[in-house]
Amino acid sequence: RTIPNTPTIPFIAGDGVGAEIWAASQPVFDAAIEKAYGDEKKIFWQEILAGEKAFEETGSWLPDHTLDAIEQAKVALKGPLTTPVGGGIRSLNVTLRQTLDLFACVRPVRYFEGVPSPVKEPEKTDMVIFRENTEDVYAGIEFAKGEAETQQLIQLLQEQFAVKNIRFPETSAIGIKPVSEEGSKRLIGAAIDFAIAQKRPTVTLVHKGNIMKFTEGGFKLWGYELAETTYKDTCFTMNQYQAIKQTEGVATADAALNEAKAQGKIIVNDVIADNFLQQILLYPEKYDVIATCNLNGDYISDALAAQVGGIGIAPGGNINYNTGYAIFEATHGTAPDIAGQGKANPSSLLLSGGMLLEYLGWQEAADLITNAIEEAIRTKKVTSDFAHAMDDAVELSTQEFGSLLVS
Ligand code: NAD
C-alpha cells in the first residue's frame, strides 16, 4: 500500500466518555507526528458519526456517510459506542466489523510498569491476541424461544438430521455457530504472519475442540494444516513433533518449542480454552501470539487485559489484511458512570491510535506515544482509575493527562 504523507483519516469520538478521551488524545497524535516527521507528515482528522450522537443528529445509529468515509479512507479510529438496547438494532461494533469484513480483532496485551495489577508478576504477560471477528456464535444467527421458526428448526433437527437423545424443551432458544475453514485459515495466517514479522517464537491456537469437534476442532485442524503446508518453511507444529516423537500432551510443549528453535522456526501449538485461562495466570511467559475463535477471544481479551491492570489502557484494532480496511478502537465501553467528569483514562484510545500509526508505517510516531504513556505512569502522573490504587500518585484529569503527554 502507498500511504500519502497527509492522509485524511475519519474518527468516531464515541458516546459517554468518548468526547473527553478524543479531545485529550488528538493533540497527542498530532504532536507525536510533528515531533517524528516535522512538516513532512500530517493527519487531517475528519469527524464521522455513529452511536447516540449520530442518532440525535441524523436519526440513524450508523449513517451511510460514516461507512462511505471509512471505505474511502480504508482506516479509521473509534471511541466507545453505546449499544442500542431493544428495537432490533444490533451492536454497532459488530455491524461495522461484519460490514467491512474486519476478520481479525487484534489486541496486544502488555504490562506498563507501575500500573496497579491483581497479579504478582504482571510483567510476565506480553501477548498479542488474534480473535476471529466475523463467525462463531457472534454471527448473530439466533432463534428465540417459542417462535414458530424455532419449533420448525427443532423438528428439522430431530426428524431430518436425526439429532436424538438431546433435550429440546419447548422453551429452547437456539444459536448457530458457523466456523469455516476459510475464515479460520485467514485469521490464523494473519497471526502467523505477525509472529514472523515481530520475531515472536510461538503461535498458540486456543479452542474447545474437545467438545465442539467440527467447529472449534476444525479451527485447530485447519490451523495445523495451514502451518504445515503454506508456512512449512517458517513453522514447526506441535502436531509434527508429537508424530515424530510418538508423544502427547503438555509435557512435550517445551521440547517441541526447543526443536522449533533449533530448526529456526516458529512453533505452532494448541491449548484447550479452559486450560488456557489457568495457564495465563500460572505461566503467562509461555504464551506469545494467540489465535482463537470469536467468543473465546472475547473472554480471553478482557481477562488478559485485567491481568495487567489494563482495562482502561488496552488498545485494539479490527483489521482485514486482504482489503486493508482497519478500524482501531478504544476497547472499553462508554463508562457512563464517569462520563463528563474528566476522570476517564484516554490511554486505550491513545494506544489504539498508536496501532493505527504503526499500520500506516509511522512507527516512530507510535513509539513516541507509547514511551510518553510509559513515562507518565512510571512517574505516577495518572488519571483517577490508576491514582486510587497507587501510593503518592498525582491525579490528573483526562485533559491534563493528554497535555502532559504533549509536553
Ligand atoms: P465500560 O467499559 O463502559 O465500563 C466498565 C467500568 O470500567 C466502569 O466502571 C467504567 O467507569 C470503567 N472504565 C471504562 N473505561 C474507562 C476509562 N477509559 N477510564 C477509566 N475507567 C474506565 O463497560 P459497561 O459499563 O459494561 O458498558 C457501557 C456501555 O458501553 C454499554 O452500552 C456497552 O454496550 C458499551 N460498550 C461499548 C464498547 C465499544 O464500543 N467498543 C465496548 C464495551 C461496552
From TrEMBL:
It comes from the Bacteria. Gene3D superfamilies: Isopropylmalate Dehydrogenase. SUPFAM superfamilies: Isocitrate/Isopropylmalate dehydrogenase-like. The record marks 138, 208 as: Critical for catalysis. It catalyses: D-threo-isocitrate + NADP(+) = 2-oxoglutarate + CO2 + NADPH. The modification N6-acetyllysine is found at residue 120. The modification Phosphoserine is found at residue 91. PROSITE patterns: IDH_IMDH. It holds the Pfam family Iso_dh. Its cofactor is Mn(2+); Mg(2+). InterPro entries: IsoCit/isopropylmalate_DH_CS, Isocitrate_DH_NADP_dimer_prok, IsoPropMal-DH-like_dom. Homodimer. Belongs to the isocitrate and isopropylmalate dehydrogenases family. Catalyzes the oxidative decarboxylation of isocitrate to 2-oxoglutarate and carbon dioxide with the concomitant reduction of NADP(+). This is Isocitrate dehydrogenase [NADP]. It comes from Enterococcus saccharolyticus subsp. saccharolyticus ATCC 43076. The lineage of its organism: Bacteria, Bacillati, Bacillota, Bacilli, Lactobacillales.
